Amino acid sequence: MEDKVIEVNFGPQHPSTHGVLRIKVKLDGEIIMDAYPVIGYLHRNAEKLSEMGAYPKALIYIDRLDYVASLNNELGYVLSAEKLMDAQVPERAQWIRMMLVELNRIASHLVWLGTHGLDMGMLTPYFYCWRERERILRIFDEITGSRLLYNYFAIGGVYSDITPKAIDMIKEFLSDFGSKLEEIQAIFAKNYIYVKRTRDVGKLSLEDALSYGVTGPLLRASGKKWDLRKNQPYLYYDQVNFDIPVRQEGDVYARFQVRIEEMRQSIKIAQQVISKIPEGEFYNKKFSKPMLVRLKGTGDSYVPTESPKGEYGVYLVGDGSTIPYRVRIRSPSFANLSALPIMLKGYKIADLTATVSSLDPVFGEVDR
């Protein structure tokens, strides 16, 4: 009966929404009859701010979109800017970029996995995930001088060369992270309560995923073997061997399995990259200093990349000046959230937390 349906606000100040997400939930008892995600509480205005300064200055705003995968954000922007300007990038810089975005992919997935465990009432894996992520952040600190917001990728290369100490740190991390990941996975997979709360929960069919423009681990967990690193290669992804993890179930547990396997594949990629990085320049010296790039872009460019959340693309329009005329960003979290009502309908309110968590949204890029 209609008079039994009540409307409840979940968020926007709730730890399990992974940001300032408000969900208006219609409940019949414990059953979710409908759900409406409400966004816009953060409103970074990053796109418009990026149109108010020279091309390199936008990177400080781009960094702050998906702030747990800042290097992946930077990559999409510099690739689009370089395409617009027809700028050449040294081979060494391209390999360095590739190494760092794969490490950042692992770090991002570890943040998701640890907080996902907290959402499910599991405290131990949070510390295990943070321990491993800390090792990656120390590598980034050695290379870029920062631990979260890096501003390291430059139009024409990278701001500084990778150090021998950093190479040793990366090799040490790659040598034993695989075994640590097995340990973390076992904490989840062998937990009866976790498996029961995530299997056949928050299901998203492949048809609905494609209809809503869902990408990344969510799309692959619904059965679509699609990864831009394979299907539309950029950098040197066509020169390394790796697999695309795919599941058919389309539920929360399938998304967990896909992200675990993606971390294994990132290890595989990074191990190949570390042996392929050539000697040479890390920045195109024709551009003078990185922050003083005054190249002019005319026309438009769009470059999609595979971020930890899905397809992250940057569209730039240049009018011949040193300032971008338009900056528009295709953020995967924004599109993935649009499918949330379908994923929640018919499930219990207790399943809402597991489902929202499985999306891995970051609201810096949603409210961009």
Continuous helix count = 15
CATH topology: Cytochrome-c3 Hydrogenase, chain B
How would the global form be characterised? globular
Radius of gyration, CA atoms, in whole angstroms:
21 Å
Structural class: alpha+beta
Keywords:
368 residues, alpha+beta, Cytochrome-c3 Hydrogenase, chain B, three-stranded antiparallel sheet, 15 helices, 14% strand, globular
Structure description:
There is one protein chain. This protein has 368 residues and is of the alpha+beta class. It has 15 helices and 8 strands. It has one domain: Cytochrome-c3 Hydrogenase, chain B (Orthogonal Bundle). It has helices at residues 46-50, 59-62, 70-85, 91-119, 124-144, 164-189, 192-198, 206-211, 217-221, 228-231, 252-276, 332-338, 340-344, 349-359, 363-366; strands spanning 5-10, 22-28, 31-38, 153-154, 157-158, 298-307, 310-319, 326-330. Strands 1-2-3 form a 3-stranded antiparallel sheet. A 3-stranded antiparallel sheet has the order 6-7-8. Helix 6 runs antiparallel to helix 11. The mean pLDDT is 92.
